[in-house]
Amino acid sequence: MNIEFPIKYFEGNLVFSQDGSCWAYYQLAGYNYDFLADDEKDYIFTNIKAFFWQINLDTHMLVVPNFQSVQEKHERFKQKLSGPLKEAAVKHMDDAALQLERMLGKEGTEYRFFIGVKLPKPENLKKKNFFQDLKEAWKEFICRVNEASGLDTPEIIEDEIERYRKAERRVFNKVHSRLKADPVDEETIQWLIRRNWYRGIGKAPILKNWSPAYTVNYKEYEEGNITVRRPLYHDVLRLTEGLIDDSPKRSLIVKQVYEGEEVEGHVAFLTIANVPYEIQFPGEEWMYVIQSLDFPVEISVRTETMENRKALSAVRNKQKELKDQDRHARETGNDTGLNVIEGRIEVQELEAHLQKSRMPLVKTSIILAVSASDEDELKRRCDTVKDIYQDMMFQVEQPYGDQWLAFNEFLPGAKRYIKDYVHFMEPATVAGGMFGATKQLGDGEGFFIGTTGILDQPVYIMPNRAAQGIRGTKTNALSAAFLGSLGGGKSFSSNLITYLSVLSGGKALVIDPKGERGNWKHDLYDLGDQVNIISLSTKEEDRGRLDPFSIHSDIKEAETLALDILTFLTGVRLDDSQRFPKLTKAVRVVAEGEKPCLTKVMNELLNSDDEAARQLGEHIRSFSELSFAQLVFGDGENDSAISLKTALNVLQIQNLELPASDTPQEKYNLSEMLSIAMMLPISSFALKFIHSDRHIFKVVLFDEAWSVLNTSQGSHLATRLVRAGRSMNAGIYFVTQNANDLLDEKMKNNIGMKFAFRSTDSKEIENVLSLLNLKNTEYNASTLRELQNGQCLFQDISGRVGVVSINALFKDLFDAFDTRPPAEKELEDGKIISNERLPLDGHEQMNDDKTKSNKEEVYV
Predict the structure, then answer these.
(1) In whole angstroms, what is the distance from residue 429 CA to residue 394 CA?
(2) CA atoms lying within 13 Å on the CB side of residue 134
């Protein structure tokens, strides 16, 4: 069947059609849906319903998969790499691209959402009488005849384009306020056209910096000259390269030259022949449902608004028709058909509803597109789509002979070509499809951290992106939280993201109170000499390296930190009018003297004439006598600073005895109290670290972060860290078992990305969901309980939430970041043959022959 290519010209987000109409197209960013409570889903539903109630213009909704080349995405990120490890980062990105292509194929799929609105005809510059209108109608008729015969080319008046732009701005206000959509650009419209000729084949190539060509003429019109554009029709047709074979009748064969070879793709178009009168919401989101399939599906929905009076008239006419059928059946002695009886009841209910609500009806047609590389796979996919819609009581047809017409309906600016499958819907029925709901996660660029969804969509993040003011993000906080019970994967994922941040040009300080990262110097061979393991011991050369007066050159900063440490150890509160002034005075006296240190503060108290002061000094001495206390109780002689010149720095303190995270503070012993107190100068040291070069993204990773956050002094320091981090281009990564540590509003609002691993405690689940701004529904709670090792609920900087399977891709990284104790593998005779770490339960380790540059693929 021959039909005219519908697009005459496009500019900006405006598409001018051959029939004289003009469409404006917008893109929705997509919104989180799966983990919302019913009332939150209802809020989104109400917004979409209000849009279709109020728009009163024809619309074209498109849900289309975007096949993103893994290689292309990695190449783009490679252009942004910098720093001393750039060469290693490029090599890692190349290796990662090859591994991902093995796992997921060369193309990753994500859904994009577009809506086109047919703009109202702009009013003429001056009013015309009947004869002028007749003259213009005749001129338009002659133009159409000339265009059809090839004797003339279509033209667009320049002033008309400007008036359409003004009309578009008015429409944009409605689209953006209800759907949060933004205008597309010319490259996107080009892609929306060209991609149709690459279904089942691959990624459509884009012509960079290309716009449709036109010529400019000046023409006599009414009383003066006007500027007229003549679009070069064949220039737009350049975007339709390829051959379409409609001989199968119920599908199309797309023939295309792709990457130098002739390739075939197969595509079938399915139409919705019947929509159930009542659709359950939430539960039957008929547009969102395609994202639960393991292959991509496209949707095109065209709507026309029928205002209330016309809708009532149409319903009453239908009522008369059904009544006549009922009467005819009785007159001929036959029983009235059940469909007629049910139809009369439904029409009566609809008439009453229309009279009461004053709502319009939406004249809707729905077409689905399914593509595959071969005919057998196409048939399987079509059957799967039919089954999933028939389960919701939708009737799906694969029309014979109309496939080419359906193909053209997906083009922007086209009209409705297939008119046999039109439905009159309430705005609520259209809204119930949940147009714009997405399972997409991450930033879409940066480095790979894992996969999500049934399609195993790759998840990419760029840790410093939040502070760049990207439109659509819900936060500008660079800090992140890693939560969950033991063994779930929180330490592994935080280590992986910190490593990748350093590889990409950043710097990192890792606070390792348990000494689990001492192997990094050897195992992270890609980093070479840029790994610095700082192990603070009981040796004399380490004395005082964490003393507040050694860390801070600013006396006021040193005094504040000294008081934080000593008040925590002694339990002296700010409102203790007897002891707190004495402690403050001792710190100030020492600070004003030569070579200040905490040991001198203790001695100042011990030598006091006041009994309460001497008791404070004795209390402090009980801590100073512990083996590793010399790190914080300096003697004023050793002022050697800790060097952080390398890209990755790991700060370890030997012999720390951190209590269990659920142990109340009043039950801490001396060693545990001092161990917690040691985290205060470390936190302050981290604050000093992030105040370096703002041009470099910095990460401070706090393992066992609860040990800092559980004290008022530590919580205050942590809040200062995240606030300073946002302005100093630094992200603070908190790894903790207790989400309650981060629920303080000052802290919660400054956390960007959140990674929540498995948790089984009901109270902890409630806290985690609160931190993620999710309601404590049974679905959300059960999802957290049932996460596997290496899986987490991930909330990105756009506020979207989904389950991500963290994947390090390579065995050397898996071994380096695995914090579990080594397992001994034994032979049947009981002899130990190796101490290598075993893969996490439920995850697959690739064979040794699938290696690249001595890296082995591992699913984490």
Answers:
(1) 13
(2) 3
Those residues with Cβ within 8 angstroms of residue 843's Cβ, 6 or more apart along the chain or in another chain: 788, 789, 790, 858, 859, 860
Q: Per residue in 449-469, is it b (16+ CB within 10 Å) or e — as a string?
A: bbbbbebbbbbbbbbbbbbee
One-letter-per-residue 3-state SS of 746-764: HHHCCEEEEEECCCCCHHH
Say what the alpha-carbon torsion angle 223, 224, 227, 229 is, to the nearest 10 degrees: 50
Burial of 150 (0-12, 13-18, 19+ CB in 10 A): exposed
pLDDT value at position 312?
81
d(CA 101, CA 834): 32
pTM over 0.90: no
Q: What contacts 102, CB < 8 A, 6 or more positions away?
A: 850, 857
Per the structure block, which two tokens stand in for 541?
């050369």
Question: Which phi and psi (to 5°) does residue 669 adopt?
Answer: -90, 180
Q: Which residues contact 310 (CB under 8 A, 6 or more apart)?
A: none
H/E stretch holding 503 reads helix 490-503
Phi, psi (5° rounding) for residue 484?
140, 165
What is the rounded distance in angstroms from the CA atom of residue 88 to the CA atom of residue 525? Answer: 10
Please report, in angstroms and rounded to a whole number, the separation of the first and last CA atoms in the chain. 53
Q: Which segments of 691-711 does DSSP mark as H helices, in order?
A: 706-709
**Helices 555-570, 712-727: crossing angle, 10 deg rounding:** 150
Under the phi-then-psi rule, with left for phi > 0, alpha for psi from -120 to 50, and beta for the rest, what region is 413? left
CB-based contacts of 7: which residues, under 8 Å, 6+ apart? 15, 16, 17, 18, 193, 236, 411, 412, 413, 414
| Extended beta strands in 126-240, E state | 156-157, 181-183, 214-221, 224-231
Kind plus residue range of the DSSP H or E element containing 12? none
DSSP 13-70: TEEEETTS-EEEEEEE--B--TT--HHHHHHHHHHHHHHHHH--S-EEEEEEEEEEEH
* Beta-bridge partners for 858: 845
pLDDT per position as a tens digit, 664-675: 888 888 888 888
- pLDDT for 131 equals 60
What the chain holds in terms of domains, given with CATH numbers, is: 7-307+360-431 (no CATH), 447-543+638-852 (3.40.50.300), 554-626 (no CATH)
Joined together, the tokens standing for residue 162 give: 């400007």
Burial degree of 262 (CB within 10 A; 0-12, 13-18, 19+): exposed
User: Do 276 and 433 meet the contact criterion of CB atoms below 8 Å apart?
Assistant: no
CA distance 26 to 15: 11
What is the reported pLDDT for 139?
55
Q: For 209, what's the count of Cα atoms within 13 Å in the CB-facing half-sphere?
A: 0
pLDDT of residue 358: 82
What pLDDT score was predicted for residue 142? Answer: 53
Q: Which two tokens stand for residue 286?
A: 């008929």
Write out residues in the chain with pLDDT < 70, as ranges.
Answer: 1, 106-108, 123-154, 217-225, 638-641, 820-860
The amino acid at 609: D
- CB burial string 747-773: b at 16+ within 10 A, e below: bbebbbbbbbbbbeeeebbbbbbbbbe
How high is the pLDDT of residue 410? 96
Residues listed for the chain? 860
pLDDT value, residue 841: 38
Q: How far apart are CA 412 and CA 278, in angstroms?
A: 30
Instruction: Tell me the H-state helices in 334-451.
Output: 338-357, 375-390, 403-409, 427-431
Quickly list DSSP for 272-290: EEE--S---TTT--TTGGG
pLDDT of res. 138: 58
Give the span between the Cα atoms of 529 and 648, in whole angstroms.
Answer: 9
**Three-state DSSP class for 805?**
strand
